């Protein structure tokens, strides 16, 4: 297909794509006419209220259905086993009468005295319907009721011991006799929320063993094999979690990606951020020197958080100096989150602060792996006490530690090679990849380099080999659906937007032919999570509130025309670089400050000459977008970052 003399310009948003087609003159490739423009509207693949993926709305009901189906199957198997071993009467009047009896009374008697096989079967059937809470370290969220359940369970165990009740069933029967309820219910709300008692799975299994041990004295048919089958396979069986498949390395697809809790992964994240750190001084950027960068790395890798004031102190910067990452909205530099939770600080040591230094690297990795993969708190505590020799209290403190989730895009060998280059020679990521001997022969590029003519139409993004390698989650199985076979971006907003962009691009190619140029502007919130979007909204609202306060004060002092907009650029032009610090004392007090600059401000604000502010000022943070900016009579250029008044901006909105 022959290239046409057209430029396609796109503005990619979360729910829309603005597009425009410009005709170019043949020689200079400058726009001479706007041929056509439009907007394509689509949904972002998320629930508009919660911001969750639409897939989650399907996954939760499906999970509930599976749980219900498995419960019915489990009860069906138990009923068949009890009938086969004559622990329940046949269907009829006898069974109906048995099921009318109080199961709590039968459970209370069965733990200390002889009951019939039918009564024992009735007790086991009742226990199968209320099996108790079983904690899972992988699925329990930090903000759920797990802490309340642990507190209520400890209170319940103390009640059993003080009251002399042998089993949980005996305790429930005593509550019924005293007129109290036996349902587990939350009492109070918010900070006052609590449970009077809460049984756990092991309490029910202990009651099962106690009943079986007592009744096996009177019923020889209650064998050990039957006990193991009913307890571990039928009544208290818990299906293990399905392991989450790990993505493959970008450089070596045959290897798995490295988890973020690994020490090398934490070091890489710190070094990558430090390599991007720049000092801004008098509108010029400077790299952080190697020695001070090492000091920052050692501090952060030890698990210590650093405020931006602390970073500037280590770098020896003045109050006038700025840091690019701080100006970009980053709250703090990344620190070793694993060391922070395990080692703690000098003021507040972590659970392994004293022992961690004496462990071999292999044992450290094994500890971290068990903390991540173990599902049962009891099993993990036993391993910590038996393998590491920790006291029970220390083992319980370690068990509560939650390590970072997720994986890097690289395998362990690649990460260690990059960390070596970045730490030893001060390389940034690109230079570390170029100089790493392990990667010198990999021939990895971040773009899909094809022949000059390229492809006729734009394919799906996961059909490009370079992006398949970046995604790393495809199965390569021809029998699987398309997205499962090739992999896809997990962010639903980005996935949908790229699919819609392909449709618009191919539509324009069909109408105008392949373009000579393509210009893309992507919204900054395209790949942000709902939480990150909320933070941007909060920042915009805070800036609006601040600007409204400044406007009122400036208008009251006669320094601003009514209705004139106020923004960061206005205040910077009027009050200089330290405008925020100066205005913090209030505009009304500026006249009392004995300095020359308030009069200069007054003259600038009241002068007939306008400020060099080409467009309305904004409260939103600087847009991080790729956009095409051109100046009449100049060569078209691509700029990234803040808005610039150098001609006109191609935008479809």
Automatic annotation (TrEMBL):
- Which UniProt keywords are present, listed alphabetically? Endonuclease, Hydrolase, Nuclease
Q: Name one GO molecular function term.
A: nucleic acid binding
Positions of the Cas9 alpha-helical lobe domain: 246-432
Coiled-coil ranges per the record? none
Renumbered residue ranges of the record's region Disordered: 45-66
* Organism domain of life: Bacteria
Q: Which NCBIfam families match?
A: cas_Csn1 (TIGR01865)
- Protein's recorded name: CRISPR-associated endonuclease Csn1
Species: Thalassovita taeanensis
Its lineage reads: Bacteria, Pseudomonadati, Pseudomonadota, Alphaproteobacteria, Rhodobacterales
